Amino acid sequence: MTHEEIDGLLKPARDLMMELRCHVQADTERLDERILSPVDSQLRKEIIAARDEVGCEGPWDARVVLDELLISAGTVQTLSYQVYSIGRLLHAPVSMRAVQALVRTALETAARAWWLLDPALTIRQRVTRSIGVTLQSMRDEQRAWKKLGEAGPLKRSNEQINHLVEWARYIGLAITADKLGQPRLAEFTPSTASEMVAKLGDEAGGSLGGSALYSWLSASTHGAALHMVPFTDGVPQVPRTNCRELAWVLKPAVISLRATHLRLAEYVGASSVHRSRPYDALLRELHSKRSDKTPVGVF
Question: Comparing C-alpha atoms, which of 127, 122, 125, 117 is closest to residue 171?
Answer without folding.
Answer: 127
